[in-house]
Amino acid sequence: MAIVAEWDCDIAIIGGGIVGTATALALARAELGSLIVLEAEEHLAAHQTGHNSGVIHSGLYYKPGSLKARLCVEGREALYAFCAEQGIPHERCGKVVVATDAEEVAALDRLEERGRANGLQGLRRLDPAGIRELEPHVCGIDGLHVPDTGIVDYTAVTEAYARCITSAGHNVRTDARVYGHRRDGARQVLRTTAGAVRCRFIVNCGGLQCDRVAQMCGVTPGVRIVPFRGEYYELKPEQHHLVKNLVYPVPDPRFPFLGVHFTRMIHGGVEAGPNAVLAFKREGYGKLSWSLKDALATASYGGFWRLVQRHWAMGCGEMYRSWSKRAFVRALQRLMPEIRASDLTAGGAGVRAQAIEQDGSLVDDFRLVDAEGMLHVLNAPSPAATASLSIGAYIAERVSKRWHGQRSTAGAG
User: Fold this and answer.
1) Does residue 24 contact residue 167 with C-beta atoms inside 8 Å?
2) Prediction pTM value
């Protein structure tokens, strides 16, 4: 029996996180045709977006000329403007990156060079007294003030994107998990838990499930998503005064993780973290969260074991810090010696969808893969939330070129 479509549209976007909704918003503005956003969970921003620390990144860390660098800087300013226009609480509060030893000073030099190459304004080096002027309880031998960094609630941003999409006459559907795909002539059919969707073009922004969505659509992703959980503590209210804004260590350039840091949140409170530990479930936010399917997917992937071979010591250290509050506190004390375990209470956690190559290398930049009638976003790590509007515009431009080419070819026939 043929599938009776409940929705018939031109473009279907799989994934209702911040990248999926920003992409849909950009496509709506491009006026290519009718759109639907399909979100598996009962509400938008349920996973990476909703568990985000809320930092608006400046563009300091990314290799000049990379897609990450360009889209972060463009997207940051677009996001500030969007939040102001929509009345979304946000703040351009700035952050301090702190070096605690001579080796980190050299790395801080390179970060400053990157930041200037990426067009950041107002970067300022800080001596120990300058660090204490901005963050009185933080100790370091050198620092870098980055005024363009900010804070926001990314769930609120995603919901605002969705309102703009529906106001433009398009559809955002939750509780619509995609579980099947087939082609039907010039159109494609997506089977979802909310019914069937017939469309001409698919954009996969599936986040933690993006590689599986690609495979379901007949595309070999070439990478596998391996989930890493980041766990946070929160400062008790009586200790909020210890952190004025954001305080970061100098990151290890071998890894895409920024190290444990202090983050003031837009709705109040201060987070400390995260660490970065292997998760055994793609949407697993607890230490004991477990999925046989997800664990086997990681364990059966040669790229994962090649990664372990290279970085097992770091991985063991992160796991130890996950189970030992004392070890977590010691990491925080490198930045703030007076912090004590009694100052912290358990906070939330997030899971990062990290794409890993067959050779075990971590995919650092955004990764988009084209296929017939499709575009798959297979790596969109931090700063994807910051860069969401520019990522959405970039994807919309790529889709638009293929869309018009598709229509021209159809017309020529």
Assistant:
1) no
2) 0.94
